[in-house]
Amino acid sequence: MVELKKEAVKDVTTLSKTAPVALAKTKEVLNQAVADLYVAHIALHQVHWYMRGRGFLVWHPKMDEYMDSLMVILTKSVNV
After folding, report:
1. Where does residue 74 rank: exposed (0-12), middle (13-18), buried (19+ CB within 10 A)?
2. Which of 18, 30, 47, 68 has the fewest CB atoms within 10 Å around its CB?
3. How many Å separate Cα 42 from the centre of its chain?
């Protein structure tokens, strides 16, 4: 049991030393993901507004669905 405690303390010490670097990298990756999702949302919005042609009645409502699902993902990711 004493060995387990020593190992646990060693693990916590190691984790606490690397945690700030890992946290910064995680924030960077998540911020980029949110930015990319927002750009995708804007692109879908543009397609939605400027769509024409034969598939309009099929694809126009589909773009609404896609934009709504992206907005849900963005809202959840920002409110975490």
Report:
1. middle
2. 18
3. 16
Q: Name every residue whose Cβ is closer than 8 Å to that of residue 64 and which is 6 or more positions away in sequence.
A: 48
Measured CA to CA, the distance from residue 45 to residue 71 in angstroms comes to 11
Amino acid identity, residue 73? Answer: I
Count of CB atoms within 10 A of residue 52's CB? 7
Question: Above pLDDT 90, what percent of the chain?
Answer: 11
**CA separation (Å) from 64 to 17, 45, 51, 58, 75?**
46, 8, 12, 11, 16
How do residues 24-63 score in pLDDT, each as one tens digit?
888 899 889 889 988 988 999 898 888 899 989 998 899 8
Considering only 14-18, 22-26, 47-51, 66-70, which range has the smallest mean pLDDT?
14-18
- With contact defined as beta carbons under 8 Å apart, do 69 and 47 qualify? no
